[in-house]
Design a protein that fits this description.
By secondary structure, this protein is α/β, with parallel strands linked by helices. The chain has helices at residues 6-32, 38-47, 76-90, 108-117, 150-170, 191-207, 234-244, 263-272, 298-313, 334-354, 357-365, 369-380, 385-394, 401-408, 410-417; strands at residues 52-53, 95-97, 121-122, 125-126, 174-177, 182-183, 214-218, 228-229, 248-253, 276-281, 322-325. A 6-stranded parallel β-sheet has the order 4-5-7-9-10-11. A 3-stranded parallel β-sheet has the order 1-2-3, covered by helices on one side. The radius of gyration is 22 Å and the shape is globular. Bound molecules: beta-L-rhamnopyranose and manganese (II) ion (2 copies). InterPro entries: L-rhamnose_isomerase (IPR050337), L_rhamnose_iso (IPR013451), Xyl_isomerase-like_sf (IPR036237), Xyl_isomerase-like_TIM-brl (IPR013022).
Length: 429
């Protein structure tokens, strides 16, 4: 397998460790003045893991074009190599979320062996009924699980059941369902009937879910349907999840909301009703742009983690969300974007751990808006980079992950080993 040697990473770390130790000690001293233990924070950061989407390892592209990079992975085995490189450097991405049929192979035990060998596991298998595959009997042009035609719905149901069986072979424990079903013209679709058809189909999938699995529903405001989508918002999402049962939960993709929507409050509601299944982290300015996590709205991401850490601290029942990235990398090397994004999400988590919860609750009770918001800002404004770097170092990753990646020549070697085949099915997400 194409890999970055551990010995190379530790040699590279040597040039940074002296400065890191100084920065870490300084930060530790500063934090201790507020009663915070840097070692505890570092332990928490070591435990924090976020999954990489297999489809994110290739250049995404837009509806207009895709400009592929060199040495892109051409199949799931090569995507797995890239995921291993990301985890070897970042030390916080030890699982992969695959997408079918893009990642379908004949022998899943071989794939499982490869992932075991590089220390990666599989979580959240994704179904795809938003594209037609060749030799497919019924088209998804007018929908899939909610289609007006029963045979098309049945085909979409069976695909989801197939995906569950692939996931079982890989040791995954959840199915994520996102459908592009919706309409482009007012009047095109009967809102209630299409939602009823969707629920009827989903009930059939839910009934076949292995006992230790969860099913996660992902909503999306628009695209490819530009007037209405069947699972448009968190309202439709949680209604469907409640209708389906306790093993069905909502998944929050940050890019799938209307601009200015208060996502952190949605997260709080989902936590309260035991319906938070997980996240697809990314960032966006206009719509589902799938920009790198934290690249534009790091404060929003921090506020989301404020809710998550709060639930963790209160030991909220039924709280165990799955963290995943879901981004489209158009102009960067996907490996670099994924390394950076994972660290940015981890950063939000660590900063949220700095919040003095007792003080915050007291300010909330006293209706002291100024002090309550200052409490959050105090945590957000602290630079926790030394904790992130020390976490990578202690977990065997790279102190300077991007610089080490570039120096390793991984992409240049991939360009030689993986000559372009002209197509990458998972582009344009
Ligand atoms: C969608 C959505 C889903 C992902 C596809 C590829 O916009 O975010 O999570 O399965 O893209
Ligand atoms: Mn998504
Ligand atoms: Mn999306």
């Amino acid at each position: 397998m194409h890999r970055i040697e551990k010995s190379f990473i530790s040699e590279e770390n040597q040039q940074y460790i002296t400065d890191l130790n100084k920065d870490f000690d300084y930060l530790g001293e500063k934090l201790s003045r507020s009663g915070l233990d840097i070692e505890k924070l570092t332990d928490a950061a070591v435990k924090f893991q976020i999954a990489v989407p297999s489809w994110g390892t290739g250049t995404g592209g837009t509806r207009f074009a895709r400009f592929p990079g060199v040495g892109e992975p051409r199949n799931i085995f090569e995507k797995l190599e890239d995921c291993a490189a990301i985890n070897d450097l970042s030390a916080c991405t030890n699982s992969v979320s695959p997408h079918f049929p893009w990642d379908k192979v004949d022998d899943f035990s071989e794939l499982k062996q490869q992932s075991d060998a590089v220390g990666l596991s599989w979580i959240a298998v994704n179904s795809n009924t938003f594209q037609d595959q060749k030799d497919q009997a019924h088209s998804y042009k007018y929908g899939s699980l909610s289609h007006t035609d029963a045979a098309t719905r049945q085909q979409a149901i069976e695909h989801n059941l197939d995906v569950i069986s692939y996931g079982q072979a890989l040791g995954a424990k959840s199915l994520t369902v996102w459908v592009g079903d919706g309409s482009n013209h007012p009047g095109q679709q009967h809102f209630q009937r299409s939602f009823e058809r969707y629920l009827e189909s989903m009930k059939k999938i839910y009934a076949e879910l292995p006992s230790d699995w969860e099913m996660h529903i992902e909503h999306k405001m628009f695209e490819p349907a530009f007037y209405s989508t069947v699972i448009q918002d968190w309202g439709s999402n949680i209604l469907a999840a409640m209708e389906l049962g306790p093993k069905c939960k909502s998944l929050v993709d940050l890019g799938h909301h209307a601009p200015n929507v208060n996502i952190e409050m949605i997260v709080s509601r989902l936590i309260q009703f035991k319906k938070l299944g997980g996240f697809h982290f990314n960032d966006s300015k206009y719509g589902d742009d799938d920009l790198d996590s934290g690249s534009l709205h790091p404060y929003q991401q921090f506020l989301i983690f404020n809710e998550l850490v709060d639930a963790e601290a209160r030991q909220q029942e039924g709280f165990s969300p799955a963290y995943m990235l879901d981004q489209s990398h158009n102009v960067t090397d996907p490996i670099e974007s994924l390394i950076n994004s994972a660290a940015e999400v981890q950063r939000s988590y660590i900063k949220a751990l700095l919040i003095d919860r007792e003080a915050l609750y007291a300010h909330q009770t006293a209706n002291d808006a100024m002090m309550a918001s200052s409490e959050l800002k105090k945590a957000f404004n602290l630079d926790v980079s030394p904790i992130l770097a020390m976490t990578r170092y202690r977990a065997g990753g790279a102190i300077e992950a991007i610089a080490t990646y570039r120096k390793s020549g991984y992409r240049q070697q991939a360009a030689i080993k993986r000559p372009s085949t002209g197509g990458n099915t998972s582009g344009i997400v």
